[in-house]
Known about the structure:
With 260 residues, this protein is of the alpha/beta class. Helix content is 50%, strand content 14%. Helix 1 packs across helix 2.
Amino acid sequence: MELGYDGVLLNTAIAKADDPVGMARAFALAVEAGRAGYRAGPMARATWPCPQRLASALRLCEARMDRFYPIIDRADWLPRLLPCGVRFVQLRMKDQPETGLRAEIARARDLCAAAGAILVVNDYWQLAIDLRCDWLHLGQEDLVEADLSAIRKAGLKLGVSTHSDDELETALTARPDYIALGPVYPTTLKKMPWAPQGVPRVSEWKRRLGAIPLVAIGGLTLERAAPVYAAGADAIAVVSDVLKAPNPEARAHEWVRATR
C-alpha cells in the first residue's frame, strides 16, 4: 500500500521527532478528536466560543497553568496533593526566616518538577530568582518593591493580585502573565479591607483583561466554582476548601475531576 503525500509527511515528522512515541500518540489523539467532532456535527452559532475566551485559553495552555490552582502554606502538602493530579500550585508562606524559606521553596520546586507540576512562589521574588523557579506571584505592596526587570531577566512568569480598579491598572503596567481578582466571596482566611467582589465583577475584569488569564480567589468552593468559571475566570485559586477539608486528598481529586 502506497502512502499519500500527507502520510509521508506524517511518518517523517514522527520519525524525526525527539520523542517519536509521544509524537505518534499526539497525532492519534488529534485524529480521534477530529472524528469525535465530525460525529458531533456542527455547533449552534450561539454556543461558539468567543475569540477572547479562545485567546485566553491558549495563553493558559502556553503558560502551563491549570484551571484548579491550590495555594499551600508548606511543602509538606505536595506529597499529598501532587498524586491527586495537581499541576499548578502556589507556595504562600509568611513570617519565616530566610534560611527556612529557602529550604522550603527548594523542596517544593523539586517535588513539583518531579511530578511535572508548576510551582508558583508567593512574594519572595529574590529567592525565586536565586532558586531558578518558574513562576512568581506578587501582591500590590510587593509589586511596588520588586525589581521587575530582574524578574523578567530571570525568565520568571508573573501573577499579580488585584482588588480594585486602581490596583488593576497598576498590575497591568507590569505585563503580568495572569491577574488574580479577589475576594470573590467572603473569606475567613484573613482579614480583607475589600468587600466581596461578587461574580459580576469577575465578568467585568475578564472583559478588561482580554487574553490575559484571570484567576478568581477568595471564599471559593467546588460548589461555587461553576458560575465563576462561566463568568470568565480561567482558573480558581483554592485554599480552605482543600486544606481544611476533612479529606484534603479526596477534595483535590474532586476539583481535578471537575476541571479537566
